[in-house]
Design a protein that fits this description.
Elements (H helix, E strand, L loop, with lengths): L2 H29 L17 E4 L5 E6 L3 E14 L12 E12 L5 E2 L2 E6 L4 E2 L17 E2 L4 E11 L4 E7 L8 E4 L2
Parallel strand pairs: 1-11
Antiparallel strand pairs: 2-3, 3-4, 4-9, 5-8, 6-7, 6-10, 10-11
Length: 184
């Protein structure tokens, strides 16, 4: 048997093996069904909570991991001013400050959370640092154990003529279940 014949048989065998692997792979891929299920995670059952935007208004929101938080608007300061004479809003703007109490009413630890304020002109505002308010300290994200509370002020800089549409609290940016305080 010559070397050419051995190479020809070897190449034929490799080609046959490649065809068999291709067919088997194609069958496996076509019969494999990928299913993504959220059943059991509870996220699909986490609707957004809504409450009026006003002092004394409160609402409870539950998000992933059965984190349940109750937020209370203690006071709305509009316009807000700082006792720090170097901290003033940009010309044509004003500060709005919201004093809040957040309580972990669930059994799981809560970590952080983010606020967003939307005005009726469609602009969305992230919190700004405003020192020198006469009330509670500036709110900062922190871990709350079950039954724990934190109180603080969150401030925003908005246009002088802007009207607040809603304040949103997102306890977990990777899961459903946000809280909206909406102007009625």
């Amino acid at each position: 048997m010559g070397i050419g014949r051995i190479l020809l048989l070897g190449c034929g065998g490799l080609l046959a093996l490649a065809i068999v692997l291709f067919v088997v792979g194609a069958l496996l891929i076509s019969s494999t069904e990928v299913r993504v299920s959220t059943k059991g995670t509870g996220d699909q059952d986490r609707p957004d909570a809504r409450a009026p935007f006003a002092a004394g208004s409160s609402a409870t929101v539950t998000t992933a991991g059965d984190v349940t938080l109750k937020l209370l608007i203690d006071r709305v300061i509009d316009p807000a001013t700082s006792t720090n004479r170097f901290q003033t809003p940009t010309a044509g703007n004003r500060f709005v400050a919201i004093e809040l109490t957040i309580e972990n009413v669930g059994t799981a630890e809560a970590h952080g959370g983010e606020f967003l304020l939307r005005t009726t002109d469609g602009f969305e505002h992230r919190p700004t640092t405003l020192s020198g308010l006469e009330s509670s300290p500036t709110w900062r994200a922190q871990t709350l154990t079950s039954g724990g509370k934190v109180q603080g002020v969150i401030a925003f800089e908005i246009k002088d003529d802007a009207q607040i549409q809603w304040l949103k609290f997102d306890p977990n940016s990777f899961a459903k279940g946000d809280l909206y305080f909406e102007v009625q």
